[in-house]
C-alpha cells in the first residue's frame, strides 16, 4: 500500500452548500474499510462543524480552524495547536464594527473588511498572518495553516506525508496540497489550485473526491498518473543541462561501478530523499554508510544488528536507518537479509514505508547464482541496488529494475554488460566513457536515450554533537468560515 491516508477539505470539496451527500459518505466509509486513515482539514470552527456534520466520526482526525485545532472524533478530545488570538486585536476589530468571529485561535471576517484587519495588525505591531479563502478573511498566528495542522495529525497517527493524498478547492488549500505526496483539486476549485495540483477531478465537490477514492481502492492510484512530477529523484544533469530523474514514482535503479563511486552517488541520493521527507533503509555490507549523517545506524564493523531493533526503528516515519552487516558472517548474510526483508515487505504493504531501500553490494546478497524464487527482493520498487558488476546480480532483480547508472571509468562496459544480461540493446551510447563525478545512465523502460550525466551532489549537514549521557531516546466562529 503506497497511499495510506487521505486529507480532505470540507466546504467545496466533500461538502456542497455545507452538506456531505450520503453517497459521498459511503465512499469515505469504503476507503476507511480498506485500511486507510481519513483526516478532515477545514477552516471551520469545530463546534459549528459538529452541528452540521454528525457523521464526523468517519474521520480518524479533524483539523479545524485552518490548522489551529486538532480533534479526535472517537474520544471527543480537543488539542489546541495555536495561541489564542491577541486580545488587543480582538478588541480593535470589535470596536471597528466589522463582522467578526472569534475561535480558539482564529479570527475571521469577510471581504472587503481585510483592509481594516491589516491596518489593525500594523497599528498594534502584531505578528499575525491573514489568509484568504473565497469570501472569508482569516487571521492566524504565523506558520499556522492546514499543512501545519496536518503535520500534527499525521504525527499522532504515526503516518508520513509521503503517503498522503490530499484534495481541496480553495486558496487556503495550497499548503495542504503542497504537503501531500499526491494532490487533487476538485473540478470546482479555483484556477490557481488546479494549476498546482497533481490531478484535477472530472466532477465537482464530493463526486470528484469519489473519483480519487475509487482510484486509491482499485489501484493505489497507479492508474491515475499525476499530470506532473513532484519530488522526483534527480541523478544529475545531461549535456544540455536538463535534469535526469527517475522515470516514475515506483522506479528502481542499479548503481554500478567502483564502490567508492557508487557509495558517493548512493549517499547523495539518500540525502536528497531524506530532505524531501522519504524514509530510507540501507543494507550496508561493508560499513560504507555508517557515517551517513541522517540515519540511525544498527550494527557496526564488530557487532551485528538484530532484525527486531531495525523494525522497531522503522515504525517511526521520521527515522532513517542504516543496517551494517559487516559483522555478520558472509555465509549468513543472505539468510539474515531474508529474515529482515520478509517483515519489511509486510511493513511496506501496510504503511508504504520505508519509502526507499538501498542494497549495497547486492551481487553478494542476491547473486546471479540464486535459483528462481530465491531472491528476497523480487519485484521490489523504490529500491537502489549498488554493485560493481550488474551481470552478477540475480536475474529476478535485473528483470524488475527500470535502469542503471554506471559511475566513473568503465561505465560504457558496465552498460553493455547490463544490456547483455537483459538481452537488450541500448540506444545512443555516449562516444566517451564517464569521468570522475559522471555516470552513464540508461532507463531501459523509457524512450530516453542513454545519457552521459554530471552527477548532482548534496552536501550533508553536520549533526550537532550530542553527549552520550544526554541522549534520549473561545466564542464560536459563525457563518464567515463556511467557505473555508
CATH class of the largest domain: Alpha Beta
- Sheet of most strands: 11 strands, mixed
**Uncertain runs:** 462-484
Order of strands, widest sheet: 14-13-23-22-21-15-20-19-16-18-17
Rg, Cα atoms, Å: 26 Å
The CATH H-level homologous superfamily of the largest domain: P-loop containing nucleotide triphosphate hydrolases
Q: How much of the residues is beta strand, in percent?
A: 15-25%
Q: How many separate domains?
A: 3
How many beta strands in the DSSP annotation?
23
Structural class: alpha/beta
Query: Which architecture of the largest domain does the CATH hierarchy give at level 2?
Result: 3-Layer(aba) Sandwich
Do you know the CATH topology of the largest domain?
A: Rossmann fold
Overall morphology? elongated
Task: Describe the secondary-structure layout.
Blueprint: E1 5-8, H1 22-33, E2 37-41, H2 46-52, E3 61-64, E4 69-72, E5 77-80, H3 87-96, E6 101-102, E7 107-110, H4 114-124, E8 129-133, E9 136-140, H5 146-157, E10 164-168, H6 174-179, E11 182-185, H7 191-196, E12 199-200, H8 205-219, E13 234-237, E14 243-245, E15 253-256, H9 259-275, E16 280-284, E17 296-298, H10 307-314, E18 321-324, H11 330-351, E19 356-359, H12 362-365, E20 383-387, H13 395-398, E21 403-407, H14 411-422, E22 438-443, E23 451-455
Parallel strand pairs: 1-2, 1-10, 2-3, 10-11, 11-12, 15-20, 15-21, 16-18, 16-19, 17-18, 19-20
Antiparallel strand pairs: 3-4, 4-5, 6-7, 7-9, 8-9, 13-14, 13-23, 21-22, 22-23
Helix pairs in contact: 1-8, 3-4, 10-11
